[in-house]
Specification:
By secondary structure, this protein is an alpha/beta fold. The chain has one domain: Alpha-Beta Complex (Protein-Tyrosine Phosphatase, Chain A), CATH 3.90.190. The protein is built from twelve helices and five strands. It has a five-stranded mixed beta sheet with strand order 1-2-5-3-4, sandwiched between helices. A hairpin with a 3-residue loop joins strand 1 and strand 2. Helix 8 crosses helix 10 and helix 8 crosses helix 11.
């Protein structure tokens, strides 16, 4: 019996990643029964796009300062797919954001969003038109060389720009979560601080609280695995003895970031 199987990578291209094309013979085997079950349970979470379902604009836009006046994160202030763009745009304007790292879109995407009938993000538009937005559409594959390359390019852009910075993707959750984690490590944050900020997103979108099974699942399958990737460790490794600041610096330098720009970025994020 003939069966059709569809394969995809979230915000990526499966055929390019696997190196296969039309007509190629491909073998697919199960590595481990239930091996991706926990990941699928995390990805099955659903949130509302109705502002009335959230306590505030800040929660709805998943907006918050990482460091007040220096670094912010949010859902997209330009892609209105989830009805959050205008709210995020107002919030980044109030925060005085000067330089943006957009991990979800190409410059062409942004031009199309600006031309759309529902465009209502004038502050972001001005930042983009004045060359203050780095835009690179990045697949959610934190282990790939192309993802690391995008992180380095984005951070290099931030280093040469003015604070306050904004980092965002579409939801401000996964790609943003990784980038912000690295920046927090550069600023000397410990694991508990990084985890608390990351998990705030899941409280904002889904109301997931500490001490619940979902919280613990996301903690282990998402942020702790991200930290291990940054530190060059196997998933599930202990981070207790890891100098996260040194690990973040090594991750960036090993993936091509200029040492001078790295120090420049650290200086701009410093509270001293």
């Amino acid at each position: 019996m003939k069966r059709d199987i569809s394969l995809c990578i979230n915000y990526g291209n499966f055929s390019e990643a696997a190196g296969v094309g039309a007509g190629d013979a491909v073998t697919i085997a199960m590595k481990e029964k239930g091996g991706a079950l926990a990941t699928q349970e995390v990805n099955d979470l659903v949130y509302s796009d109705d502002r009335a379902d959230f306590a505030s604009d800040v929660v709805f836009a998943n907006f918050r300062p990482v460091v007040e006046g220096k670094l912010y994160r949010s859902a997209s202030p330009i892609d209105n797919k989830a009805n959050r763009a205008h709210y995020a745009d107002d919030l980044i304007q109030a925060a005085g954001v000067r330089t943006v790292m957009n991990m979800a879109d190409t410059p062409e995407n942004i031009v199309a969003f600006i031309a759309a009938e529902d465009h209502d993000s004038p502050y972001y538009r001005d930042l983009f038109e004045n060359g203050r937005v780095f835009a690179r559409q990045m697949a959610i594959d934190f282990t790939s060389a192309t993802f690391a390359e995008g992180i380095v390019q984005g951070f290099s852009f931030l280093a040469e720009g003015d604070t306050p910075y904004l980092v965002h993707c579409l939801e401000g959750k996964d790609r943003t979560g990784f980038a912000i984690m690295v920046l927090e490590a550069l600023m000397g944050w410990n694991e508990a601080q990084i985890v608390a900020d990351y998990m705030q997103t899941y409280n904002n979108y889904y109301g997931i609280e500490p001490g619940t099974e979902k919280f613990d699942l996301i903690l282990e399958k998402n942020i702790r695995e991200m930290l291990c990737i940054m530190a060059g460790l196997e998933p599930g490794s202990s981070l207790a003895e890891i100098d996260l600041k040194a690990a973040a610096e090594t991750y960036l330098l090993n993936n091509g970031m200029d040492a001078k720009l790295l120090k420049q970025l650290e200086a701009k994020l410093s509270l001293e």
